[in-house]
Structure formats: C-alpha cells, structure tokens
Amino acid sequence: MTIRFEALSEKHRRPVIDIFNYYVENSTAAYRAEPVDYGFYDNFLEDAKDYPGYAMIDQDDTVVGFCTLEAFMPIKTFSAAAEATYFIHTAYTGKGIGKKALDRLEEDAGRMGIGKIVVNVSDDNDRSIGFHRRNGFTEYGRLGRVGRKLGKSFGIVYMEKTLGRGTS
User: Fold this and answer.
1) Is the Cβ–Cβ distance between 96 and 29 less than 8 Å?
2) Per-residue pLDDT tens for 8-20?
C-alpha cells in the first residue's frame, strides 16, 4: 500500500480524532476512558511542534493513521530520547502502515540526534507488543494492573529501541 506522510495540520483534525476515538471506545490501546472532542487535536499539534507529527494518507487521499514523536521527558538532559505514538485506522491494520510509520519516525529521530525511541503499550495489546519486538524494541519495564477500562484491568509495557546514536 502506498502511503504518504503529511505534517499534521488543521485539515487532519477530524480524521485523526476519529481514528483515536475508535481506540478510546473499543480497546485499551488508547488509555482514555471517554472519547475526546475535536479540540483535543491541539494536543497532537503541540506535541509535534518541535518533533515530527504526521497524518498518513493513502492513494485515495484518505487519512489512514497518524504518528508522532514527542519528548520522552521535556528537559534537555533527555533530548536524545523520544516517545513514539501511532494509531492506524482499524480497516488498514496489518497492511504494513505501522512499519512505515515507525521507519519514518526513526529516520526523523536520527536526523534530530535522537538515539532512543520509547513506547508504552497496554499489556493486553499482544499485536502491538509483537510488532515492537519484531522491529527491534525490547521491554524495559511493566506496571501491572494500573488501568481499568471496558470492564477489565490492564497494565502497561514499556519498550525501547536504540537507534545507534545519541543514547546507548
């Protein structure tokens, strides 16, 4: 599938929030308990202010997902690490889009001098944990049963990938 990356902008507000809200309402992949309004998109734009943030667009000009890097910790001491976030429209999962998003974020991270990418994943999201493992991430910690959503408890798995520069 051909995907192009567009910097997050106002025109992506509705489709990005709609994709995010699907995961809010149907899974523990997005941790929020209630759907967010379209104003929440400003948080994604703020995260992408000094870091890359993209809408992923298919050949039909449909937003099929979004991805961002943001500060791991917003202090200079940790500027060589960044946190990645990506959500893919459910109709487009399993088609390699997540890998393309990760590759793009890794390229951008390298240009920015970022040597480590971290993610946090719901511990019941086996697909995402497996995806990250297959793509070079290792687990560095867990918080068990810290969340409750959709009638069940869940934890968080913290994963990291060293890119070969910056941190080691």
Assistant:
1) no
2) 999 999 999 999 9
